[in-house]
Specification:
Blueprint lengths: L15 H4 L5 E2 L15 H12 L4 H12 L13 E2 L4 E2 L3 H5 L9 H4 L9 H9 L3 H6 L1 H20 L10 H7 L5 H17 L1 E4 L5 E4 L35 E3 L7 E2 L12 E4 L6 H9 L9 E3 L5 E3 L6 E2 L5 H5 L1 E6 L12 H18 L8 E3 L24 H7 L16 E4 L7 E6 L13 E6 L2 E3 L14 H4 L14 E3 L3 E8 L2 E6 L2 E6 L6 E4 L3 E5 L5 E2 L27 E2 L5 E3 L4 E7 L4 E13 L4 E5 L3 E5 L7
Parallel strand pairs: 1-4, 6-10, 8-12, 8-13, 9-12
Antiparallel strand pairs: 2-3, 4-5, 7-11, 9-10, 14-19, 14-22, 15-16, 17-18, 19-20, 20-21, 23-26, 23-30, 24-25, 27-28, 28-29
Helix pairs in contact: 2-3, 2-8, 3-10, 6-8, 8-9, 9-10, 13-14
Length: 640
């Protein structure tokens, strides 16, 4: 494997001015409450005070802190790069490098940097401020002061002073990234100054309101970055398919986990992008996926700092979704991180770099930027009846779909209003205020930080679904997981939740409760005045064409008789536990797609005569033959 140095800290090299969303209310998860904040504006005041103390333009410090943490403190929780607090001050210990402490778990790529200052900015900040290392780790205001002191010291070394002109802080911001390569450092600074241009507004998990007003006129002095004496990027990028501003290298994925193809030129459409998480670190993930015996692969791997390794060309088929039919038509993006750890791993750099990559891929392959085509691994259909219950549930309930779709320039549309029976709603709980109780057990957390099954309250991307309009009613249990039993609040129990961006037809409304058709049943969720939904129009609704129930599928292969002689037909069988009963309705893709299959041995593509809709059936999608249903467009009010 051609290994490269990772930039320590968050250093995604993408054009933030394209992706930064001004005024979006966003909040990561898994932060711990910071008791040093006595008012909802204490963090904003601490940032402004620190900027004044160290003679830094306040917009620069606010934007830098946003890029490092989205203004979340995370309490005493350490990041994957060994960083603490709002300013991500690093203090990597030998225990972290050995994998015996939280943060930087087994990070072999950090070991060769351990003796340098990049992994010990917290210690440098302690010398500059006179504050103790403990204060800088645990106290919000102290951490902000430490980061400000560090940034000011870089500016003085670079320019000899602390100018009032924000544009002259570009070089110091680039150095703050701790990147050893000029491309990474400049990318980080571009991101920070993009945030200054676009502005941002956040309500954090612990209730802090922080805002940076937009300054579209900012014109940073980018030439300052050359004075840092950093190395030009030397990574092999010849084989990559990435947008120019994303730091991207190529490492060949396992040949056992991919099939050479020529999509879409050979007639196999690419219409879906699947978001995953690795459940391990970036380097461990790349190494594992490069192992020639690994039966899995992915097209891209995204690090917590926004670096990208491409492992399978987009023309080829990567075995990444657990469903060959889905693999045929999708591109997979894995992310460094753990589903149960939330924002400690899903960083702003990941969100923004992934958004840039997804926009690039969507443009190339004409993929719609909506939640029918930009999905999580947890939304992928089970390929057959025996495999549905064991399908993966990453990136999990703490991936902020609302924020991510906004970064794509495709925010969830519609108005919050009381739904009408027969209308279509988009699930859209406000992430920052959507606190859900979730049970996490040791087997759910590969980091080892969970030692017993515990109930946690965390911001999440879903609403719970119940069997009746009451908080005491049982959770709905998906048939593939529970049979006829009720559901649970276990973090991996995807069957009892509807996720941000998913769309359903309203079956009933009673007071503050809304019912939707879901998994062949009528299920209920709390939705006072439509606070957790947006009404959607213009989408496709399908219903059974006749009086009987309609079968659902997890794949879209041609009929057996349509395969030429000598080519074995893939099995196309209905999912035995699922159906659409008469009288129910579901949201489908705009147009049905042809059934198809691929044979890598000779490059043959078999395209069937029938077409299938992909529908939002439950937490996952499913497929239905177009001939079995009638399709209408959702208008202001739809009735049976």
């Amino acid at each position: 494997m051609r290994k490269r140095k990772r930039a320590v800290g968050v250093s995604a090299a993408i054009a933030a001015s394209v992706l930064t969303a001004s005024g979006i209310l966003i909040s990561p998860v898994a932060a711990q409450a910071d008791t040093s904040n006595s008012t909802p504006t204490a963090r904003q005041q601490a940032l402004r005070s620190a900027a004044a103390e160290y003679h830094i333009p306040s917009s620069v410090l606010l934007a830098l802190a946003y890029q490092e943490s989205r203004w979340e403190s995370h309490g005493t929780q350490v990041s994957s790069d060994g960083g603490y607090g709002v300013m991500h001050l690093t203090d990597v210990t030998p225990a972290m490098l050995a994998g015996g402490d939280a943060g930087a778990v087994g990070r072999a790529d950090l070991k060769d940097l351990a003796a340098g200052p990049a992994l010990h900015t917290l210690q440098t900040a302690a010398k500059l401020t006179g504050l103790s290392a403990r204060e800088l780790r645990e106290d919000d205001t102290a951490n902000i002061r430490g980061g400000a002191a560090l940034l000011a010291s870089y500016e003085k070394q670079l320019t000899g002073g602390t100018p009032a002109d924000a544009s002259r802080w570009y070089g110091a911001v680039a150095r703050y990234s701790q990147s050893k390569q000029q491309q990474g450092a400049s990318g980080f600074a571009d991101h920070v100054f993009g945030t200054i241009r676009g502005g941002a507004a956040v309500t954090t998990q612990d209730g802090q309101r922080v805002r940076l007003a937009a300054d579209p006129s900012i014109a940073p002095v980018r030439s300052q970055a050359t004075a840092l004496g950093l190395k030009a990027a030397t990574a092999d990028t010849a084989d990559t398919e990435c947008p120019p501003a994303v730091r991207c290298t190529f490492v060949a994925g396992s040949p056992a986990g991919r099939q050479v193809s020529n999509r879409p030129a050979n007639g196999i459409r690419i219409d879906t992008i699947v978001i995953h998480d690795l459940e391990t670190t970036y380097d461990a993930g790349v190494t594992g996926l490069a192992n020639p015996t690994n039966p899995a692969a992915t097209n891209y791997v995204m690090s917590s700092d926004g670096s990208v390794t491409q492992m399978v060309p987009t023309k080829d088929i990567a075995f990444q979704a657990g469903n060959y039919s889905t693999n045929l038509h999708s591109v997979g993006i894995e992310h460094e991180g753990y589903a149960v750890q939330g924002a400690a791993w899903y960083t702003e750099a990941q969100y923004e770099a992934t958004a840039y990559l997804v926009r690039y891929l969507a443009t190339r392959f004409d993929i719609p930027l909506d939640r029918q085509h930009i999905i999580g691994h947890d939304n992928v259909a089970g390929p057959n009846s025996s495999l549905v219950s064991g399908m993966h549930w990453d990136p999990g309930p703490f991936w902020d779909w609302d924020h991510f779709m906004s970064l794509l320039g495709a925010p969830l549309s519609g108005l919050h209003a009381v739904p009408q029976t027969g209308s279509v709603v988009t699930i859209d709980p406000p992430f920052a205020q959507n606190s859900q109780t979730i049970q996490v057990c040791p087997s759910d957390d590969p980091t080892g930080q969970t030692t017993a099954c515990t109930e946690r309250q965390q911001q999440a991307n879903f609403v719970y679904l119940r069997t009746a309009p009451s908080e005491t009613a049982p959770l709905f249990g998906d048939q593939a997981i529970h049979g006829t039993a009720v559901g649970t609040d276990r973090v991996n129990d995807w069957g009892s939740t509807a996720q941000s961006g998913q769309q359903f037809v309203v079956a009933d409304v009673q007071g503050d409760w809304t019912a939707i058709w879901y998994s062949g049943s009528e299920v209920w969720f709390y939705n006072p005045s439509g606070a957790n939904t947006k009404t959607s129009y213009g989408v496709k609704i399908i219903r059974p064409a006749n009086t009987g129930a309609v079968s659902l599928y997890g794949s879209s292969y041609p009929d057996k008789a349509e395969y030429p002689a000598g080519l074995g037909a893939s099995t196309q069988a209905p999912l035995s536990m699922y159906s659409i009963p008469a009288g129910q309705a579901y949201v489908a893709t705009a147009e049905p797609a042809a059934t198809d299959d691929y044979f890598p041995s000779n490059g043959a593509v078999v395209i069937g005569a029938k077409k299938m809709y992909t529908i939002q059936y439950n937490h996952r999608v499913a497929l239905v033959y177009a001939g079995d249903v009638t399709a209408t467009e959702a208008v202001h009010h739809w009735e049976d």
